[in-house]
Amino acid sequence: MWQLLGQDRVITLLKHELETRQLPHANLLLGPVGIGKMTLALDLAQSLNCTGDEPPCGNCYTCLRIKSAKHPDIHIIDLQSESKGERKQEVKIGIEYINDLQSMAKTPPYEGKYKVFIINGAENLSIEAANTLLKTLEEPPPHIVIILLASSERDVLPTIVSRCQRLELNPVPLKQLENILIEKYKLDIEQAAFLARISHGCPGQVLSAIQNDKFLNERTDILNTLVEIIHSNREGRLNFASHLTSEFNKNRRSINIIFTLWLDWWRDLFLIREKNQELIINIDRKTELVNHAVNYTTQQIDIFIREIQATRKYLSQNANSRLVLESLMLNIPSAHISTQARVGE
Amino acid sequence: MSSLVFYRKWRPQTLSEVVGQEHVTQTLRNAIHHGQIAHAYLFCGSRGTGKTSTGRILAKAVNCLNNKNGEPCNECTMCQAITDGKALDVIEIDAASNNSVDDIRSIREKINFVPNIARYKVYLIDEVHMLSDSASNALLKTLEEPPAHAIFILATTETHKILPTILSRCQRFDFRRISQEASIARLEYICQNEGITIDSRSLKIIAKSSGGSLRDAENLLEQLLSYYGSSISINQVQSMLGLTDDSRVKQLAKTIIDKNIPDGLAVINSMINDGVDLKQLTRELVQYLRDILMLRSGVNDLINLNEEDTAEIIKLSQHASLQEIIKAIKLFGQVDLSSETYYSLPLELALIECSLPDSSVSNAVSAINNESASIPTIKQKTESTALSQTEIITPPQTIEKESVPVVSESMESNTPLEQLINGWKKMIDGTSHDMRRTAAYALMKNSCVPTAINDNTITLTFESNALKDKMELLNNRKIAEKILSDFLGHPFNIQCVIEDNQNRPSQKQGYLVKAALEMGAKIIDSENK
Predict the structure, then answer these.
(1) CATH topology classification for A212-344
(2) How many structural domains comprise chain B?
(3) In chain B, what's the furthest Cα-to-Cα distance?
(4) Residue B314 domain flag
(5) Chain B, 284-313: which have a CB under 8 Å from a chain A CB?
């Protein structure tokens, strides 16, 4: 059973390639977070080594060992695996990991049919590491399959991309994801529609939402604060900005979740304004959104969305986080300021 | 896997098989034929253009036992050993993995031994841009005067990272991006030998999407082969590449031109639900808008469309002004989908911005451009009304009523100056990045306001003498004039003056003061700086 959800095309392609034994030795899986890149990589690793009838069977000894990360021939290289010893927060996958890969690649597999190397986050390879990988990636020893995972092709060295089979995993279309959720996870229609929407077509997020409430609770918190901030005065906003700044300095990723939700919210507003209510994401708060939407012009919303995007960019470029966030807070189009006041600025 | 991928299986084995690099292969063939082999070659060029392959062929050609006209025979023991990567005397080094000075030292130590069986010892150093600085320098002397039996072949994608002293010691060959025709010819050859049936239009699409890299094209072909089997149709190629069907691109273009945001949003989202690749969609949309632009500007030769499409576009383009089309192309051309995990938003924003009225830029430009032209036409109108007044008595009143507001509108509420002031922020925001580092940009952003436009001169008013002097430096002047002219669409000069403080002392409050006032502060005292 392939564990990957909703990517029939890619799976069909890979099945063909496995059946005809023509799977390229290097594969690059591209797609947003939560789309199922790692799931697919493990699926592939299982299919290559499976001893059952219909690979990946998921039940044979090999498949089970791969699933529990105990197989000696499957090597996963990523940032998390590096947090040993004192170096906790690494930002790049260093050259030493690729050197390890190369020396491991020289020996035949211990018990499986293929050695599979999975590099999670190919965009995080350091320049040296990426270049070191090139020759191995082009002409590896037999019995080696390398699978690279990346969220955007742009951040991967072009010479690496050109040596791999590119497999793009696009967000799963809404209807299809809803159906999968209803059939496979026995959700009721409403909940399936809701989860499919807020996940942007990435099944990984839905699954984490089903498994524990943390994801949904966090979302409710963030949206509540958002509404609160929109209605608060400058003092409240600046306080919130300083709160966000300290959050950001503790953990850079947390703010991305907030911004994604904010973008969803404002996008919903313009969708409602432009008569496309059925497309909105936060369907659980529809009435609230409809009430809000009246207060803004489409242009205001457009400007603010650009503002959020710019803030995100500045933060990733290490601008002064406090200043950037404060400026974003002050630029929230407040519902009471009419259009005239904005033009006057 | 057990079978080789295409780019390894179909790696060219003779110089004549190397596609699209005739300037390189011909030179090498002649050099080998005449025995004039250089001791160091540098192959550079983008990915998938044949650098490593040519390097290996060269290694074979110089060592081949029965060399004909500079081509390796691929039959003798030497050639076969090199093809299999077993030859002792052809040493392929991955410079990215072996980039330290010690690795180069070991080359230096071994290079003096004569080759075991081959004629030449060939060092093929791939990814040479990754050699460390000291390693590159350690190589220099050897590279300049290697023993007579040694040949160096360096290959890289990034020439700019290579020491100039290395460059000057090598015979350099630049590998070009492979032209579409050459890629197609090679793909056809592979298809014949692999027993794939595919038509030439499909091959053209593949070649086009590979961006001049044969390896990418071969990868794609292989993917198609394993997905669809040995007979491939053009529809299959399109769907593999995520190409959309035309009709919805047209639909989307129509909503853009009609400024119909709701329908546009619906079209975009319906495409997402069908799993259309948005990057491809954007590309096609821009292409289509370009076709509209071309037809609209009366150029029919540069686009290849059938008559039906042309008629459709002409009908569509009648609703839109050139400027609107250009704006749409710009906005959609800038859409950057790769950075967003959240995927349709950039497209939706571009759609909205196309449709929102944006008075400041385009109107300011057209007003200034038309100012000289519009006044005479209005005069003509009034003259004609005057004439008609003498002849007919009743209708002129209606004409007068029509013409008067036109005059007042264009003269009073929308003077070029006001529009420039309104569009100022937009202009500052829209300034290109290299301009933003200049002092002139900072001055225009923070320290001055336009106060008058006469003919081709814009007056900028400054608060302080020092800032004004700074702006009047020739360099800064030029840049400021360029920014203004780019924004307004035709050349302007600038003139700098000092602000007359008595005129409007209270208006110029800093933004901090403004913010404080809004939060409830009061001004109790002020002093001049």
Answers:
(1) Zinc Finger, Delta Prime; domain 3 (1.20.272)
(2) 5
(3) 111
(4) yes
(5) none
Q: Which helix (H) or strand (E) holds B347?
A: helix B345-355
Residue B410 is classified by DSSP as I
DSSP-derived letter for residue A2 is -
Residue with tokens 């909503």: B255
The whole-angstrom separation of Cα B428 and Cα B360 is 12
Q: Which domain holds residue B227?
A: 180-240
CB-nearest partner of B352 from A114, A158, A302: A302
Model pLDDT for residues A9-39, shown as the tens digit of each residue:
888 888 888 888 888 899 999 888 888 899 9
Listed in sequence order, the residues at least 6 apart from B58 whose beta carbon sits closer than 8 Å to its beta carbon are B28, B32, B41, B122, B151, B153
Q: What is the pLDDT of residues B340-372, one digit of tens each?
A: 556 688 888 888 888 877 544 444 444 444 444
Q: Is the ipTM of this complex over 0.85?
A: no
pLDDT digits (tens, 9 = 90+) for B433-466: 777 778 888 888 877 888 888 777 888 888 778 8
Is 0.90 topped by the overall pTM?
no
Q: What architecture is domain A8-168?
A: 3-Layer(aba) Sandwich (3.40)
CB atoms within 10 A of CB B209: 16
Q: B344 and B255 share a domain?
A: yes
Q: What are the boundaries of each domain within chain A?
A: 8-168, 212-344
B residues 215-274 closer than 8 Å to A (CB): 215-216, 219, 222-223, 225-227, 242, 261-262, 265-266, 269, 272-274
Distance CA B23, CA B20 (A): 8
Please report which helix (H) or strand (E) contains residue B136, including its range: helix B133-144
